[in-house]
Design goal:
306 residues, alpha+beta, seven-stranded antiparallel β-sheet, globular
Length: 306
């Protein structure tokens, strides 16, 4: 059962007076779902371990950022966002020379296992105002990736904390991802995902090395989309992170396996997707104003894949 459905059932028990026009259940995408990955597949042990992790660790509720963090954002804008690593991570992360974020470089070695890295700050912050236009957007540029036939994978997407960091974005609860070994999209999908290019029949590029991939999220519709070299692809998902969005914080997520070199851009330099350079897509825009009317935000439409 997906996390949104569990939340709705708990909410119904606490609030039996809820109106009969409840949000619709999400419907699967029209693309055929794959049972297995086309190029690479996680182990059953990894899958079971992640299920146990999610059962033991509840999703963190959204929180108001520390006053010093807000002050830093007011001074430095999107440069306060960066990719985080942890002590036991097999991946090295380097930030731009002044120690700030905006740009982070991820480097992994040939023996690197499946690894997911999250941003230090939420890109969708539940306690803050959701504008009626625009959203958030970030990009990665792939400098190096082990050939998928030899186990190389890079993924871009989003996740809520805590997330099993040995699992790629999109495989577990409240997480979405675009996997660049087989160009499949995932949302809470631990199987093989769904193709991002059903109309084209094949991806517009054969290898992602040297290319820039973007991930965007629209506040008003809950639409997640991806870009390649500045060209927006068909919408991947609609309605995600709308239900109970005041109760969760969502972070940027990048997954790597084997030897990879990836530059993550939160706005430290211009985006390839030109619209992403407009103010309404800036990473720091949302957290400049606290949210209101939380109860109304809980009754927004449910997710469905495009």
């Amino acid at each position: 059962m997906d996390w949104f459905k569990q939340h709705r059932q708990r909410h119904a028990r606490r609030h039996p007076e809820v109106l009969p026009c409840a949000p619709p259940e999400w419907a699967p995408a029209t693309e055929q779902s794959s049972t297995y990955g086309l190029q690479n597949e996680a182990s059953d042990e990894s899958y079971q371990k992640a299920l146990e992790f999610c059962e033991r660790h509840a999703v963190e509720w959204s929180r108001i950022l520390a006053s010093q963090t807000i002050a830093d954002i007011n001074s430095n804008g999107c440069l306060e966002w960066r990719i985080q690593t942890h002590d036991s991570s097999p991946v090295a992360v380097v930030h731009n020379s002044d120690g700030k974020g905006g740009l982070s470089q991820i480097r992994s070695k040939v023996d690197c296992p499946d690894t997911c890295l999250l941003s230090n700050l939420p890109i969708i912050a539940g306690q803050y105002h959701f504008p009626n236009d625009g959203g958030v957007y970030f990009e990665i540029t792939v400098n190096k990736m082990t050939d998928p036939s030899k186990g190389g994978v890079i993924a871009i997407g989003t996740a809520c904390r805590p997330y099993p960091l040995w699992r790629f974005p999109g495989w577990n609860r409240l997480s979405a991802g675009f996997h660049l070994d087989d160009f499949h999209k995932f949302f809470e999908d631990s199987e093989g995902g769904r193709p991002c290019f059903p109309a084209l029949g094949s991806p517009p590029i054969m290898s992602v090395v040297g290319h820039t991939i973007g991930c965007g999220y629209s506040f008003s519709t809950g639409t997640m989309f991806f870009t390649i070299d500045g060209q927006r692809l068909p919408d991947a998902f609609t309605g995600i992170y709308l239900q109970n969005r005041s109760g969760i914080d969502v972070y940027a997520a990048v997954g790597v396996t084997r030897e990879c070199d990836v530059t993550v851009n939160f706005g430290g330099t211009s985006f390839k997707w030109l619209e992403g350079n407009e103010c309404r897509w800036r990473m720091d825009r949302q957290v400049r104003k606290l949210g209101d009317d939380v109860e109304e935000q809980e009754e927004l439409p449910a997710y469905h894949a495009c």
